[in-house]
Design a protein that fits this description.
The complex is a heterotrimer of chains A (about 500), B (about 100) and C (about 475). Chain A is of the alpha/beta class and about 500 residues long. Chain A has a single domain, classed as Amidase signature (AS) enzymes (Alpha-Beta Complex), CATH 3.90.1300. Chain A is built from 16 helices and eleven strands. Chain A has an eleven-stranded mixed sheet with strand order 1-3-2-4-6-5-10-11-9-7-8, sandwiched between helices. In chain A, a hairpin with a 5-residue loop joins strand 10 and strand 11. The longest helix of chain B has 18 residues. Chain B is flat, with a radius of gyration of 23 Å. With about 100 residues, chain B is of the alpha+beta class. A two-stranded antiparallel sheet of chain B has the order 2-3. In chain C, strands 1, 3, 7, 8, 9, 12, 13, 14, 15 and 16 form a ten-stranded mixed sheet that branches. In chain C, strands 6-5-17 form a three-stranded antiparallel sheet, with no helix packed on it. Chain C has a two-stranded antiparallel ribbon with strand order 4-18. In chain C, helix 3 links the parallel strand 14 and strand 15. Helices cover about 40% and strands about 20% of the residues of chain C. Chain C folds into three domains: about 290 residues, no CATH class; about 110 residues, no CATH class; about 60 residues, Orthogonal Bundle (Arc Repressor Mutant, subunit A), CATH 1.10.10. Chain C has about 475 residues and is α+β, with helices and mostly antiparallel strands. In chain C, helix 5 crosses helix 6, helix 12 packs across helix 14 and helix 12 packs across helix 15. Chain C contains 15 helices and 18 strands. The termini of chain C are far apart. Classes of the chains: A alpha/beta (about 500), B alpha+beta (about 100), C alpha+beta (about 475). Strand 1 of chain B pairs parallel with strand 2 of chain C. The complex binds magnesium ion and zinc ion (ZN). Zinc ion binds next to loops of chain C.
Chain lengths: ~500, ~100, ~475
């Protein structure tokens, strides 16, 4: 049984830890052993500190023995995307720029997880500075999909989804700017939740696009996602964009609500480019909800076709400014070739950033530059208002929206070399970020070739409890969560 | 995908603003790729945004601040721990010509 | 040809707060390098800004003091540019929605003489906004060392209209602005510590021309007198260029206060394009009427209005008001003292403070706050003098000792035997009789109507009294005796 510990959900492991059938040290060792066994192939981790994890686990066992267990995450090994700061640990954003950077402080979510008794385990690979949809843009090489090692795990939080699917962590955190939690969750067959903008503090998250970024959990089950969300949500005085909302008992709430709900199907999300197998799986999920007594209603989000452009203007503009601090002066890569102070900028950034990051910095700089601001950035902000209104209008008629998470299942490494083709992977997820809404991806089947498919549920602002309940009803009636990739 | 150049995109100028040294190959490739993207983005011009307020933040919160109470910061050692070059507790850069 | 100069000033003033403007590590001056940093100041990956309420209060107060319109909503923008003293490589500032708009600074130009009031006028302001200071670069032969202690200090940028026309006006503007900020408790404005920094935009045009000439930006004017000298020098330089038939170029020049010369800063090879956009990490600020009212209640009376009030309420001459009002503590000291002795004695109070107190403070290199002499001391001294208990010279002596020891004047007079003689009337009368008897010529003159002849008797009387007779009583006694003759 012990060899399968790493595939168990938090709730089950909690019971084993509570009855002392397993210790946190044993659990952590099992996860470490699994990681050592498979990560040479999956390559989900940028770094891990085995001794540190064991020490945390031992401390957790001491707490539990003393009757001071801190809740459902006590002793549970959690992996973090390598854009979330952990005091005294490397923080690289999968970039050469930060290859040797050690953060002196904890992100708010890190501090919260530590406070909940979790074992902080390993730094997970991602697209460089979270820019991408396939985790191929990592300076340290791509992570692969545990279901098919020739395919991508999705991105940008591909390390977080792949590690979880492969049993290298019990749950993980990622960040989602345009779909970077939900899309890799879908492609790796796990649950991924992007919270409402402002529900989870961004303090300590390396900024990509500040007005879109949110940290969220990857979990094996909806219940686990609820446990994780409850641990990391809540107002933070260190993040001015953090919302002063109450944090409900998501786990209890998700079980309490049973529906039926009014579910909207946005017609713009079922057009050209949608893979037929994905479409069929989502249609079956819709039929399931209808059979459960839910009212299924077609709705329209008329500005959907402008989401991608709006997103790329706003996200790259913010990124061009957010990434200006990586200059090789106070920290990070400093070019050995630089002859003067101005040279340090040009050469360090040229050597430190990969092509996708450079491309987005150039685009973002361009759209903000003199003479173009109104035509690009200001206009995009206005269209963003319209996109947001589309969703809020739909919510007059329905409780949540139901869509595919990704138009396609996991694709081959190197298959999408054209940036624009890759950007199109995000068409179902970016509207949610522009509107600041919560959304989650829950597994809803497999392709004939055995690749996972994800169903996206998009909720009203701060209605995460509802969203978890809807996903849980579906999850409990299916057994997708019980399947695990077999690593050759 | 249509290939198009962005006549307005002066890659040298923009790269200078962004403090990125690009190779000739990168300049050519980015110009072409960003041309495609900019071409795609042109369709935003079709949206009627008359009277529409821009969204800078997902939720319109105002007056978020903290009281003026000083708290301890980093020690010099920690502050400079990641510095590529330091001397006399300061960061060293090649001479800055003003 | 006659030229007119057009000058606008951009003044940066550090706001006095405990913590920095977007994070709560301490702000301060003179600390060891890089001891006032935290992850936010150093712009470490993942850090976020949080506004300092006190900095907002301070800038709104500054706006109210200068009669600005306080914007009901203001927001934060990023000004993007790369420089090693700027940790994020963008500065959080305010672009198109600053917190204060309009307003003005009242100035006084030099009068025809030092003791005569000069012309007053108002220099209109364009705007005031809040931003963050950068770190400090220390330049050496081949490298520069960066200290981020100053980075993130709250900074107010006050932009005037191009509405000044001489170096004297610019000097008066800065003097008045500085006093206003110190009065409001907003900044100490110590230019040596970089708490007040000034850039000047200067152009000239033929008198009568309405179009602005080519603008030159003068930087590094790091003392108030350098501002005056630098601007005067630049106006002369521009006129000389035009007179020579040359043309002016738009440029930034660096003024060296030591040598009195300026030189063009190598025009930066890169054009500025700050790519301002709203900072997504910070929320807008809404300032309602109640907030403004609360701060308005904390606003002190400013120097010029105070000077007018002092002149009207206390009948004080310009020579006194112009000294008393510029230091708020001094003005308060004056009014506290007047409260004790009554407004009729205001001039005496003013004289004691501006002559004796300031002289002693200056000699001792002390601030008025550290003075052992309090309003009660001066009030007591004036009381003794008016009662005839001490005479002028004794009072001056008492003051010096009072300043040194903090003892009350009565005690000093007793200890040092400085009280006027407790002359009995008979003794005084006898001295007066002796003096009159000894000077028949003066008696005759007095009788003939020459009033000043009475002074001839006073010397001998005072001599007989060993200087301790009250001159007023001597005068009265002499007149009484002379009347009977
Ligand atoms: Mg500046
Ligand atoms: Zn400024």
């Amino acid at each position: 049984m012990a060899d399968e510990l790493f595939f168990k959900p938090i709730a089950e492991l909690g019971a084993l830890l509570e009855t002392k059938a397993v210790s946190s040290v044993e659990l952590t060792r099992a996860v470490i052993a699994r990681t050592k066994a498979v990560d040479g192939r999956v390559r989900a981790f940028n770094s891990y500190d085995e001794a540190d994890a064991i020490a945390q686990a031992a401390a957790s066992d001491v707490r539990r023995a003393a009757g001071q267990a801190r809740g459902p995450l006590e002793g549970i090994p959690i992996g973090l995307k390598d854009v979330i700061s952990v005091a005294g640990q490397p923080l690289t954003a999968s970039s050469k720029m930060l290859a040797n950077f050690v953060s002196p402080y904890d992100a708010t979510v890190t501090a919260k997880l530590k406070g909940a008794g979790a074992v902080i385990w390993g730094r997970l690979n991602c697209d460089e500075f979270a820019m991408g949809s396939s985790t191929e843009n990592s300076a340290f090489g791509p992570t692969v999909n545990p279901w098919d090692l020739t395919r991508v795990p999705g991105g940008s939080s591909g390390g977080s989804s792949a590690a979880l699917a492969a049993g290298e962590a019990i749950a993980t955190l990622g960040s989602d700017t345009g779909g970077s939690i939900r899309q890799p969750a879908a492609l790796c067959g796990v649950v991924g939740l992007k919270p409402t903008y402002g529900l989870v503090s961004r303090y300590g998250l390396i900024a990509f696009a500040s007005s879109l970024d949110q940290i969220g959990p990857f979990a094996r089950t909806v219940e686990d996602a609820a446990i994780m969300l409850e641990a990391i949500a809540g107002h933070d005085p260190l993040d001015s964009t953090s919302f002063k909302a109450d944090v409900p008992d998501y786990r209890a709430e998700a079980k309490r609500h049973q529906g039926p709900w009014r579910l909207g199907i946005p017609k713009e999300y079922f057009g050209a480019g949608l893979d037929p197998e994905v479409n069929a799986a989502v249609e079956r999920a819709i039929a399931f909800y209808r059979a459960q007594g839910c009212e299924i209603k077609e709705v329209s989000l008329p500005h959907t076709q402008y989401c991608l452009d709006t997103y790329y203007i706003i996200a790259t503009a913010e990124a061009s400014s957010n990434l200006a601090r990586y200059d090789g002066i106070r920290y990070g890569h400093r070019s050995k070739e630089a002859k003067d102070a101005v040279d340090i900028y040009f050469k360090s950034r040229a050597e430190g950033f990969g092509p996708e990051v450079k491309r987005r910095i150039i685009l973002g700089t361009y759209v903000l530059s003199s003479g173009y601001y109104d035509a690009f950035y200001l206009r995009a902000q206005k269209v963003r208002t319209l996109i947001r209104q589309d969703f809020l209008n739909a919510y007059r008629e329905v409780d949540a929206l139901l869509t595919p998470t990704s138009p396609v299942p996991a694709f081959k490494l190197g298959e999408k070399s054209d940036p624009l083709a890759l950007y199109l992977c995000d068409i179902y997820t970016i509207g949610v970020n522009l509107a600041g809404l919560p959304a989650l991806s829950v597994p809803c089947g497999f392709t004939a070739g055995g690749l996972p498919i994800g169903l996206q549920l998009i909720g009203q602002p701060f209605a995460e409890a509802n969203l978890l309940a809807m996903a849980r009803v579906y999850e409990q009636a299916h057994d997708w969560r019980l399947k695990h990739p077999v690593l050759p | 995908m249509t290939m198009s150049s962005a006549p307005d995109l002066n890659i040298d100028h923009v790269a200078k603003l962004a403090r990125l040294a690009l190779t000739a190959e990168e300049k050519a490739r980015f110009s072409q790729q960003l041309g495609d993207v900019l071409h795609h983005i042109e369709q935003l011009g079709k949206v009627d945004v008359t009277g529409v307020e821009p969204t800078a933040h997902a939720f319109p919160i105002t007056n978020v601040w903290a009281d003026d109470i000083a708290r301890p910061g980093l020690t010099v050692e920690t502050a400079l721990r990641n510095a590529p070059a330091q001397r006399d507790n300061m960061i060293v850069v090649p001479k800055v010509v003003e | 040809m006659n030229y007119e100069a057009v000058i606008g000033l951009e003044v940066h003033i550090q706001i006095k707060t405990h913590s920095k403007v977007f994070t709560r590590v301490a702000a301060g001056y003179g600390q060891p390098a890089n001891t006032l940093t935290d992850p936010v100041v150093l712009a470490l990956p993942g850090t976020l800004p949080v506004m300092n309420k006190a900095a907002l209060d301070a800038i709104i107060k500054a706006g109210l003091l200068l009669g600005c319109e306080i914007a009901p909503v203001c927001k934060w923008d990023r000004k993007n540019y790369f420089y090693p003293d700027s940790p994020k490589n963008y500065q959080i500032s305010q672009y198109d929605q600053p917190i204060c708009l309009g307003g003005s600074v009242e100035i006084e130009l030099p009068g025809p003489a030092r003791n005569v009031m000069g012309e007053h006028k108002r220099i209109p302001l364009t705007r005031i906004h809040l931003e963050e200071d950068v770190g400090k670069l220390n330049h050496f032969a081949t490298e520069s060392l960066v200290d981020y202690n100053r980075a993130g200090t709250p900074l107010m940028e006050i932009v005037s209209d191009p509405a000044m026309h001489s170096a004297d006006e610019a000097f008066a503007y800065l003097t008045s602005l500085r006093a206003t900020m110190i009065y409001g408790g907003i900044s100490d404005c110590d230019m040596e510590k970089g708490q007040l920094r000034c850039d000047a935009n200067i152009s000239i045009r033929p008198v009568g021309e309405t179009k602005l000439g080519t603008k030159v930006e003068l930087k590094n004017l790091n003392s108030i007198s350098f501002v005056r000298d630098g601007i005067a020098h630049e106006i002369k330089r521009q006129i000389a260029v035009l007179e020579r038939g040359g043309t002016l170029v738009q440029e930034t020049r660096d003024y060296d206060g030591q040598t009195g010369a300026s030189q063009s800063l190598r025009s930066k090879e890169m054009a500025h394009d700050y790519r301002y956009f709203p900072d997504p990490d910070l929320m807008p600020v809404k300032v309602d009427e109640a907030w403004q009212e609360r701060l308005r209640a904390e606003c002190p009376e400013l120097p010029f209005p105070k000077q007018r009030r002092f002149a009207e309420s206390y009948q004080l001459p310009y020579t006194l008001t112009s000294v008393l009002v510029w230091d708020r503590t001094l003005a308060d000291f004056f009014e506290s003292t007047v409260k004790l002795v009554g407004p009729a004695k205001a001039q005496a109070v003013g004289n004691w403070i501006t002559n004796d107190l300031l002289r002693e403070l200056g000699a001792a290199h002390l601030e008025i706050a550290a003075s052992k002499v309090s309003p009660a001391h001066i009030a007591a001294l004036i009381g003794l003098f008016d009662a005839g208990s001490v005479l002028t010279n004794a009072a001056k002596e008492i003051f010096i000792e009072m300043f040194a020891t903090g003892d009350l004047p009565g005690a000093i007079a007793d200890r040092r035997g400085l009280r006027a003689a407790p002359t009995d009337a008979g003794e005084l009368e006898q001295w007066c009789r002796d003096a009159i008897a000894a000077n028949a010529k003066a008696v005759a003159e007095f009788k003939a109507g020459k009033d000043s002849a009475i002074n001839a008797f006073k010397g001998p009387v005072m001599k007989a009294a060993k200087g301790k007779a009250d001159p007023k009583r001597v005068d009265a006694a002499l007149r009484q005796l002379l009347a009977t003759m």
